[in-house]
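Before going further, learn to read the protein records used in this course. The integers have meaning only within a learned vocabulary of local backbone shapes. To see the layout at work, look at the sequence and tokens printed below.
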Amino acid sequence: MMVVLFSCTEDKPSSQTTQQKPVVVTPSFSGDSAYKFVADQVAFGPRVPNTTAHANCAVYLKEKLEGYGADVIVQEAVVTAFDGKALNMKNIIGQFSPEKKNRVMLYAHWDTRPFADKDSTRQNEPIDGANDGGSGVGVLLEIARLLHSQPTNVGVDIVFFDTEDYGAPEGVETGDYTDWCLGSQYWAKNKHVANYRAKYGILLDMVGSSDAVFNREGTSMATSPMVVDKVWRTAQKLGYGGYFKDTVTPQTVDDNYFVTVMGGIPSANIVQYHVDVLTMGYGFFHHTHKDNMDIIDPNTLKAVGQTVADCIYQD
């Protein structure tokens, strides 16, 4: 009986057709193009809030996103720094395919540190912020260029947060982690679109140094481990396992904390953070004048950018 039934099944044509998932080819991310975007920002000078360089760079970022076809919203507000100073903040948001409900949020901060508090000289002068500020934005501008030529199935929001790096200087204790990431805190309470939702977010912070290693950031692992796993598995699949390691860092306070905990968007933080005892922390350049174009490597930008691009194009 079993043989007969099998024979009948084989002879009878299937009434169902097999639907194959369409093949999507992720476009090639240019590390050289991203490098140029970083250099363009640094050329304005330190992008410290309330300065001419900051104002000019804001115009540049808005026009770049618009030039790549994004609908741009600029959130402007006055926020208060750790020392009581009023800062003119501008969050710059580029919406790609804003009509799509299924969305992904990619973000970085674009402001720079107002002092070099970890340096041994010129501590009261602002830093270039090529890596801490410039690199994440440079990668996302290149992704914006890709989105203009080849849209994704999901809608993408590229967000440049302001006033992230105006926290208290080294050695000055305020006892309040909310001194940092003022732009993302403002956004979490005042979304650029009412009831905004995204499937997940990816933060890019210090992603351009030649010695970069991206361990799994502790806050991301505590709040959004599935997003972290998605990004790190993608990197390793693409051959970038030398950059993306599986060691978990201590929990840190960065824009992803506020976007996730206050804003409700589960997020992974791609950030350079060393975990070995001798070099524990964000790197030798962090909050010093060594954070300039000399440390930026197009190969690192490529590794991060191609990974993020593949995440959104294969979604």
The CA atoms of residues 185 and 258 lie 6 Å apart.
